[in-house]
C-alpha cells in the first residue's frame, strides 16, 4: 500500500513537471512539432501490417506441422523398440548414488533424453 501511495505522488509530481515544461514551449515550436508529427504518421505504414501476412503463414505452417506430427504418432505403427535405455543400464549399478553418477557421466543418456522415446515415456 505504501508503494502505491508513493507511486501516486511520483506520478502527480511528474505530471505537474510535464505540464510546466509544456507551458514554457513557444507556440511556433508546438505548431512545428504538431506538423512534423502528423507528417510522420501519414507516411508511416500502419503498425504491424508489414508482419501480418508472414505471421499468418508461419502460424499456418506450425499448425500443419503439428497436425502431421500427431497424425504420424497415431498412425498405428509401433515405435521402434529400444534395446536398453541408459536409465535401465544406470539403474543396474550399485545404489542410487552410483546410478546418478553413471547417468551424469554417460553421454548416451543425454542422447536418449533428447529422443522421442523420452517424450513418450514422460507422457505415460
Structural overview:
With 124 residues, this protein is mainly alpha-helical. The chain folds into two domains: 2-43; 80-124. It is 76% helix and 0% strand. It has seven helices and no strands. It has helices at residues 2-23, 27-43, 52-73, 86-91, 95-105, 107-114, 116-123. The longest helix has 22 residues, at 2-23. It is elongated and about 80 Å long. The chain starts with a helix and ends with a helix. The model has no long low-confidence stretch (mean pLDDT 74).
Instruction: Give the overall form.
Output: elongated
| Count of individual beta strands | 0
Helix and strand element order: HHHHHHH
Largest sheet: none
What is shown here, in short?
It contains 7 helices and no strands. With 124 residues, it is mainly α.
Which helices and strands occur, and which strands form pairs?
Layout: H1 2-23, H2 27-43, H3 52-73, H4 86-91, H5 95-105, H6 107-114, H7 116-123
Which tags fit this structure?
124 residues; 0% strand; 7 helices; mainly alpha; elongated; 2 domains
Amino acid at each position: 500500500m505504501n508503494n502505491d501511495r508513493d507511486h501516486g505522488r511520483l506520478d502527480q509530481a511528474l505530471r505537474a513537471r510535464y505540464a510546466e515544461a509544456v507551458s514554457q514551449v513557444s507556440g511556433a515550436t508546438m505548431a512545428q512539432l504538431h506538423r512534423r508529427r502528423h507528417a510522420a504518421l501519414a507516411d508511416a505504414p500502419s503498425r504491424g501490417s508489414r508482419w501480418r501476412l508472414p505471421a499468418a503463414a508461419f502460424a499456418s505452417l506450425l499448425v500443419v506441422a503439428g497436425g502431421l506430427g500427431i497424425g504420424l504418432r497415431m498412425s498405428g505403427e509401433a515405435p521402434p523398440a529400444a534395446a536398453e535405455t541408459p536409465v535401465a543400464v544406470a539403474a543396474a549399478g550399485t545404489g542410487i548414488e552410483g546410478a546418478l553418477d553413471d547417468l551424469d557421466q554417460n553421454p548416451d543418456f543425454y542422447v536418449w533424453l533428447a529422443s522421442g522415446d523420452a517424450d513418450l515415456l514422460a507422457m505415460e
